[in-house]
């Protein structure tokens, strides 16, 4: 970005496209390590995109040259922040991947348990057996109200 | 008054640093956290009063005036959000302290919990008070990174499994947000929201629509709007109860807040209203149907959370003062109620040993207070009169009817159906978990629930009831906030008093 001129160069645009494209493809993988690489590539691509948003030129320091020839410092400041954030996220994701490998022996993101159950049920063409909360007549041992009809019948037998 | 404005951001951050230093003295650590959040809450209330009486409170950080420097802005919407969020975080903090005392140190490393929790609060308030787009992004990142640590707390196998989904989805949405920020800057040369409000209007329609959709996509992932909501019920339920509660209450609502802010201030005119209405309706229906099928209390509440986000998006999509006012009221109501329900789920887990509906029952007889604590917010969520849930839904549905047209009418029907299905879900939980013969998943002898946990839950239930009693004044505030949002000038004039350069 040292060349003077306000227009972004095509090479940088292509670099953004390649980085983000590769990042997206890697993000679609199951293994956390590949996802991590995808995040890194994509993060760098996006950071470069932000850099493209500002005017290019000389160093934006007062008294070093004409103001018109200076580059836009704001995107550079934003990119610095974004790089730090991406770095933090990468470190955390790395820790998660390591922990996952430590606990399960690989770093693949498994299916959600509930989703798996639903797929199994769908495979057997079953409806989910949801407990509706009903209970039989003997379900509650502390039920204080006994059944009147049977009792009367018993009395009748005794009589 | 502007001098108070950075406090909700700075105080929790300083508190986080202090609690990290005090890691060896849990007692002082707890006291510091509680003091920080109480302070934040007090400041937030003062800010809300100021914003309601005299218009938006603005503070230029470092004394740099608006378009050059960074501003914090508390208009009525932002101040109201900060008040509710700090009240809720304070209650959840007390609850977690109560839980930490009772636990035998098996699951929660309290040492990390307090600093991270305070950082999360700081991130949430930063996002609410941010006056420029990049600062909003930074706020989101602060709260996300804190939430990553909280959701994988302890690093057990289940939490790592569900946490990795959450982390990757959140990072993806951040990347989209960052790209949108870069594109907005490239197109307009500024990120200050007030200045953007002017400059975006001058852009060609298609460029404007592209930027709007990019931002909307990023926020919709965070807010868990239907096609982008599948990550939420998978990742929330496994975290510790207080963490799930505060996530459910606040994190999705930060997304909703960002949608409200960008749709009103940056992109007025309602170009995507049709799209928003369709996804709002689908969010409501798909979410609640998911809840109907669930058999675990926490998963079930996660699905009702997703479902009721639809109501807020519906209010935003109406683009009328009544619709926005209803949406803001609903956000306030939903933050409180959803957090309460997750806290109750935590209490159920503590008492009955599980939140699986197939394994518990008869809690109303075993623990009557728990029954009351569940019943009130559950009926509130379902929208039974006279609770605030009913008033919020009524406000939104009235706004929908007043807007007229086929799509709003369909949304009104979907909203009513969702409300009825929520009632069905709530009564199903009541029937299974609280009625029928007592059945507990734990064989351990009955221990009294920690007083602080119950107390914090009671406080939140009472806060929900206060929203019902004070619904009139609250609707005044939200209606006023909605009018200000739609006219845009109060915000812009407060940030840029000398006009747009």
Automatic annotation (TrEMBL), chain A:
PANTHER family: ANTIPORTER SUBUNIT MNHC2-RELATED. Its main location: membrane. It comes from the Bacteria. InterPro entries: CPA3_antiporter_subunitC (IPR050601), NUOK/Mnh_C1-like (IPR039428). Residues 147-159 have a biased composition (Basic and acidic residues). This is Na(+)/H(+) antiporter subunit C. Signal peptide: none annotated. Keywords: Cell membrane, Membrane, Transmembrane, Transmembrane helix. Residues 129-159 are annotated as: Disordered. Belongs to the CPA3 antiporters (TC 2.A.63) subunit C family. It comes from Micromonospora parastrephiae. The chain crosses the membrane at residues 6-28, 35-54, 74-98. It is a multi-pass membrane protein. It is found in: Cell membrane.
UniProtKB/TrEMBL annotation, chain B:
Signal peptide: none annotated. It is found in: Cell membrane; Membrane. This is Na+/H+ antiporter subunit D. It comes from Micromonospora parastrephiae. Its main location: membrane. Belongs to the CPA3 antiporters (TC 2.A.63) subunit D family. Keywords: Cell membrane, Membrane, Transmembrane, Transmembrane helix. The chain crosses the membrane at residues 6-24, 31-52, 77-98, 110-130, 136-154, 166-187, 207-232, 239-260, 272-293, 300-321, 327-348, 360-379, 399-426, 452-475. Coiled coil: none annotated. It is a multi-pass membrane protein. Residues 130-420 form the NADH:quinone oxidoreductase/Mrp antiporter transmembrane domain.
């Amino acid at each position: 970005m040292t060349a003077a001129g306000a227009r972004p160069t095509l090479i940088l645009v292509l670099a953004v496209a390649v980085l983000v494209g590769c990042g997206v493809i890697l993000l679609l993988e199951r293994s956390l390590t590949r996802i991590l690489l995808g995040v890194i590539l994509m993060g760098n691509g996006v950071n470069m995109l932000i850099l493209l948003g500002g005017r290019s030129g000389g160093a934006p320091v007062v008294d070093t040259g004409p103001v018109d020839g200076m580059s836009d410092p704001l995107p550079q400041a934003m990119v610095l922040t974004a790089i730090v954030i991406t770095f933090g996220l990468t470190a955390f994701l790395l820790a998660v991947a390591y922990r996952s490998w430590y606990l399960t022996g690989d770093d693949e993101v498994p299916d959600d348990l509930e989703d798996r159950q639903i797929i199994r049920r769908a495979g057997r063409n079953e409806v989910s057996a949801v407990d509706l909360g009903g209970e039989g007549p003997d379900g509650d041992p502390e039920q204080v109200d006994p059944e009147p009809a049977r009792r009367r019948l018993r009395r009748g037998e005794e009589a | 008054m502007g001098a108070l404005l950075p406090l909700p951001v700075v105080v929790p951050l300083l508190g986080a640093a202090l609690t990290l230093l005090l890691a060896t003295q849990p007692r002082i650590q707890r006291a510091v956290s509680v003091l920080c959040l109480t302070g934040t809450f007090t400041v937030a209330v003062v800010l809300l009063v100021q914003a309601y009486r005299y218009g938006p409170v603005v503070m230029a950080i470092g004394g740099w005036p608006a378009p050059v420097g960074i501003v914090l802005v508390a208009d009525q919407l932002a101040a109201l959000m900060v008040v509710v969020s700090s009240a809720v975080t304070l209650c959840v903090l007390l609850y977690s302290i109560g839980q930490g005392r009772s636990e035998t140190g098996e699951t929660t490393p309290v040492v990390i919990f307090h600093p991270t929790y305070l950082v999360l609060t700081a991130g949430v308030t930063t996002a609410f008070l941010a006056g420029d787009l990049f600062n909003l992004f930074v706020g989101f990142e602060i709260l996300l990174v804190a939430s990553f640590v909280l959701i994988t707390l302890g690093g057990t196998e289940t939490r790592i499994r569900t946490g990795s989904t959450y982390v990757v989805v959140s990072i993806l949405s951040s990347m989209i947000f960052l790209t949108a920020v870069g594109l907005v800057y490239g197109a307009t040369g500024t990120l200050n929201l007030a200045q953007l409000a002017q400059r975006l209007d001058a852009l060609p329609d298609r460029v404007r629509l592209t930027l709007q959709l990019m931002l909307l996509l990023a926020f919709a992932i965070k807010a868990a709007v239907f096609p982008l909501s599948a990550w939420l019920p998978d990742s929330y339920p496994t975290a510790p109860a207080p963490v799930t509660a505060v996530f459910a209450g606040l994190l999705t609502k930060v997304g909703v807040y960002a949608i409200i802010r960008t749709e009103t201030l940056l992109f007025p005119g309602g170009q995507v209203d049709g799209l928003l209405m369709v996804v709002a309706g689908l969010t409501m229906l798909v979410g609640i149907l998911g809840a109907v099928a669930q058999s675990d209390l926490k998963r079930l509440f996660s699905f009702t959370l997703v479902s009721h986000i639809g109501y807020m998006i519906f209010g935003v999509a109406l683009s009328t003062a009544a619709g926005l006012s209803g949406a803001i009221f609903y956000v306030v109501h939903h933050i409180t109620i959803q957090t309460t329900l997750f806290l109750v789920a935590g209490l159920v887990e503590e008492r009955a040993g599980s939140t699986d509906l197939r394994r518990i029952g008869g809690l109303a007889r075993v623990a009557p207070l728990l029954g009351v604590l569940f019943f009130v917010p559950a009926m509130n969520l379902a929208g039974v009169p006279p609770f605030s849930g009913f008033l919020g839904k009524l406000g939104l549905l009235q706004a929908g009817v007043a807007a007229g047209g086929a799509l709003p009418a369909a949304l009104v029907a979907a909203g009513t159906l969702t409300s009825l299905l929520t009632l069905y879900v709530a009564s199903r939980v009541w029937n299974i978990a609280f009625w029928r013969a007592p059945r507990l998943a734990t064989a351990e002898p009955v221990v009294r629930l920690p007083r602080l946990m119950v107390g914090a839950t009671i406080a939140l239930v009472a806060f929900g009831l206060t929203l019902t009693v004070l619904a009139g004044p609250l609707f005044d505030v939200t209606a006023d906030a909605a009018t200000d949002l739609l006219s845009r000038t109060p915000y812009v004039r407060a940030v840029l008093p000398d006009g747009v350069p």
